[in-house]
């Protein structure tokens, strides 16, 4: 159970750290920028393709490619919720004030969700709106919000990004330094991009079972796994990370 007093204290700490507030704004701004950029590039490519090639054009997938960058920023936001206290040395004071490691971790997880969710909603909706408007302006096909694929992205996309913020929070507790946690998170989340250069068995495993890959494939409707399995694999992975973070936080000295 997360006490409101502890949650308010976490908000005070979160909002007082300039990096977290700046990162939140940058995430939304970058999402809009990438929505425009990929929408513009995709519209240009569409204009240059043949009629046969245009049949396979996927406006949502083309316009939302920037989500792979947004995930890194959201994960970094989660990292800062934990690592900032280790960097400033205030973690001992926070523990003394809260009176329990589990309660403090739960409060930080709650704070992460409450801050990452609105940022994720804004990022996904801004990227979607900008990309689809840009596609339409360029004469390419686009999707209206009522389309099932667009609705799935707009409703579930922010949830996936928020879960990635919890993944970042777990890394922050596990590694305890911002640089190490951000670097590890970036490498993990971008590994699927490099999968094409791997041997076939490794490539197939990463493309079909890597946690963030399965979630994004389920969002776009291209997952080889049933959606429930794909999302379940992703959620289970984040849950294991959070359990690992609690075990390390509970058993080791600050």
UniProtKB/TrEMBL annotation:
Keyword annotations: Membrane, Transmembrane, Transmembrane helix
Residue intervals passing through the bilayer: 21-43, 63-83, 104-130, 150-175, 182-202, 228-249
Protein name: ABC transporter permease
